[in-house]
Design brief:
This protein has helices spanning 40-50, 67-74, 87-99, 113-123, 141-151; strands at residues 9-16, 26-30, 57-61, 79-83, 106-109, 127-132, 154-165, 176-184, 187-194. The chain is α/β, with parallel strands linked by helices. It has a 7-stranded mixed β-sheet, sandwiched between helices. Strands 1-2 form a two-stranded antiparallel sheet. The longest helix has 13 residues, at 87-99.
Length: 202
């Protein structure tokens, strides 16, 4: 992906890769973006709970800076797809990937999550691990879980992880079972196992 001439990352705030072959690499946020990056503590807990991601297909919805998907690449994921609609963040993901030494096998979809899921459904792509971190308390959790189920994005035996506020609940659907939840301050990580059933309205 080409960046506009003169594009620069906002270097007053850094994130870092905490595991894998690119451990210790740092990258920044684009100037003027107001996002809530996943903390190192939650990121470490997430990947400890996921276990090995080597050779797995991984998708990062509401990708932001791409920090979760980049972490998965560092830990050996076979393929990562990033879905992010903010053009500045899309450019940042591309620059962050290059800065951390990653290119292929990545795909950056400059689309909102609904459009991205539809595109991937049309491609018949599936993923072993899906991570989604929608803006907190915007009513997006239930819709996102429903869209993931309808799009059949999760491979058999795969896992979806939702990062969300403790003030937002997860409702089981026909396609997913809530298998685990972990609380970190005001953040919950909810682990949903795909069971192949029909999605009910949430």
């Amino acid at each position: 992906m080409l960046l506009r001439p003169g594009y620069r990352l906002f270097r007053e705030f850094f994130m870092r890769i905490i595991g894998g072959r690119a451990k210790g690499r740092r990258f920044g946020l684009p100037r003027g973006c107001r996002i809530r990056p996943t903390s190192d503590g939650i990121k470490e807990a997430l990947f400890n709970l996921l276990g090995p991601v080597a050779e797995k297909a991984f998708i990062d919805l509401y990708a932001g800076s791409g920090s979760i998907g980049i972490e998965a690449l560092s830990r050996g994921a076979a393929r990562v797809v990033f879905v992010e609609k903010n053009p500045a963040l899309v450019r940042a993901i591309g620059e962050n990937l290059r800065g951390c030494g990653f290119g292929d096998p990545c795909d950056i979809l400059a689309l909102d999550v609904r459009q991205g899921i539809r595109l991937l459904e049309n491609r018949r792509e599936t993923f072993d691990i899906l991570f989604a971190d929608p803006p907190y308390e915007k009513g997006l959790i239930e819709d996102t879980v429903r869209l993931i189920g309808e799009g059949r994005l999760i491979a058999e035996g795969g896992l979806a992880v939702m990062q969300h506020s403790i003030r937002e609940g997860i409702v089981d659907s026909g396609c997913f079972e809530l298998s685990d939840q972990r609380c970190y301050g005001d953040t919950l990580l909810s682990f949903l196992k795909f069971n192949g059933g029909e999605t009910r309205n949430l």
